[in-house]
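TASK: fixed-backbone design
INPUT:
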């Protein structure tokens, strides 16, 4: 068995320094933008997940529905079939934190029963009215992300009056809704939603001014890995965006991010260690 040796998540969450954590991506989807269709079975997904843990992942993020631009809807039944057996298999083999990447309350519930610790909801708890209740009932941690529109529509010319103010306002409202619904204030993580209803320049603005999201008082997660803003800037396909991702991870940490959601765990773990050293010396 492989066991991650990090302290319990509550200890990390309540620590004043919060060293950066790496969230490794395990997509059990046929159509994710970068790695869709690579994991065809529970055994393949388990093997890959344990490799990520061995590479240094502190959290494993399991997703059964692609959230790329123009992604098609996945039924509840299909998403459950894709994710729950994988989470159960991973939990039998490792004590590493597991996150379920879903906007469906029932998927979140079944994932938490199977052993997940965190619900990563790209909708900011807006797509399913039962999501807050389910997270609260199971005492889970939650990632509240900003999105403009839905994955199907989010890149249809997104516009903001002031992107940082608009995103902060959205997140404040969703924080209030979460706490009012019974989710502990000490279990909330924020994500500004790189690539989710953002123009190319919006993403760079978010990274450069990430401290404004950090000022809301919660740990901030950033997921820049292999995203299109890197590809469009460098003219590269997803599998050649590691250097651009490394730059984005560095900027994120220097500006306050505490969790980095990435594909290339081993490389980005190293980037995070050096970036944090630089940040601490500033």
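OUTPUT:
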């Amino acid at each position: 068995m492989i066991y991650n040796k990090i302290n319990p998540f509550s200890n990390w969450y309540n620590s004043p320094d919060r060293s950066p954590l790496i969230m490794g991506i395990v997509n059990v989807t046929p159509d994710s933008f970068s790695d869709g269709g690579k994991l065809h079975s529970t055994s393949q997904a388990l093997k890959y997940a344990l490799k990520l843990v061995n590479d240094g992942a502190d959290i494993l993020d399991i997703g059964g529905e692609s959230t790329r631009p123009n992604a098609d809807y996945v039924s509840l039944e299909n998403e459950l079939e894709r994710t729950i057996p994988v989470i159960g298999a991973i939990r039998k083999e490792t004590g590493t934190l597991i996150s379920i990447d879903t906007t469906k309350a029932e998927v979140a519930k079944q994932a938490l029963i199977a052993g997940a610790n965190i619900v990563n909801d790209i909708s900011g708890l807006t797509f399913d009215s039962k999501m807050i209740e389910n997270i609260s009932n199971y005492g889970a941690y939650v990632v509240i992300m900003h999105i403009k529109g839905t994955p199907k529509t989010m890149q249809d010319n997104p516009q903001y009056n002031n992107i940082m103010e608009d995103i902060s306002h959205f997140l404040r409202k969703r924080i209030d809704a979460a706490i009012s619904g019974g989710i502990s204030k000490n279990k909330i993580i924020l994500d500004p939603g790189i690539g989710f209803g953002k123009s190319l320049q919006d993403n760079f603005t978010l990274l450069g001014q990430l401290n404004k999201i950090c000022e809301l008082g919660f740990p901030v997660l950033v997921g820049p890995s292999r995203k299109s803003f890197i590809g469009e800037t460098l003219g590269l396909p997803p599998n050649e965006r590691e250097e651009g991702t490394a730059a984005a991870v560095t900027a994120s940490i220097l500006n306050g991010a505490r969790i980095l959601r990435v594909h290339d765990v081993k490389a980005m773990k190293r980037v995070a260690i050096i970036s944090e050293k630089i940040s601490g010396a500033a």
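COMMENT: The chain has one domain: 19-281.
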